[in-house]
């Protein structure tokens, strides 16, 4: 049986393999969701926010591949994700930013759950692996919160949305 071969060759528990594969799908969903936000921003003339979300989308792909590679490196079966329910339409720029922060907080909560599960199962290797993601989430949440602060501080009076768009563009990390 193929499954018994897979189980013999990995120290990962089935539970952890499943949760990491679910996380691959979540990162793939984030990547697609940010691409949807990028397109919407471009369409509405927020070209800097459009580039910002394109960059975010690419980062989520990197996260997805990190998980994919870890599962494979551990001798288990990484699964190509299916992506469902991607939003391509938003009421306004603020709705995009609120969704962005909510998503990032949700991802932090997921990684905390994964870390707890690893700890309880005594899987300290995966526990150590997910520390990178927990550190990363601190930055991701901080950046998402900053976009909303920018929105609030500048406000939408006069050319506010034009200035907000420009300021969000400056949050793109320079290579
Ligand atoms: Fe991510
Ligand atoms: Fe993220």
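^ structure tokens above, recovered residues below v
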């Amino acid at each position: 049986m193929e499954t018994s071969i897979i189980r013999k060759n990995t120290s990962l528990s089935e539970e952890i393999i499943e949760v990491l594969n679910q996380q691959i799908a979540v990162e793939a969903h984030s990547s697609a969701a940010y691409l949807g936000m990028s397109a919407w921003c471009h369409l509405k003339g927020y070209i800097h926010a459009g580039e910002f979300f394109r960059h975010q989308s690419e980062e989520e792909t990197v996260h997805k591949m990190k998980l994919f590679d870890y599962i494979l490196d551990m001798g288990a079966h990484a699964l190509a994700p299916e992506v469902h329910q991607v939003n391509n339409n938003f009421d306004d720029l603020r709705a995009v930013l609120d969704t962005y922060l909510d998503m990032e907080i949700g991802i932090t909560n997921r990684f905390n759950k994964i870390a707890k599960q690893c700890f309880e199962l005594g899987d300290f290797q995966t526990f150590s692996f997910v520390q990178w993601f927990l550190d990363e989430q601190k930055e991701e949440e901080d950046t998402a919160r900053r976009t909303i602060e920018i929105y609030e501080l500048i406000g939408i009076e006069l050319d506010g949305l034009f200035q907000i768009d420009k300021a969000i563009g400056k949050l793109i990390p320079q290579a």
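The CA atoms of residues 109 and 118 lie 14 Å apart.
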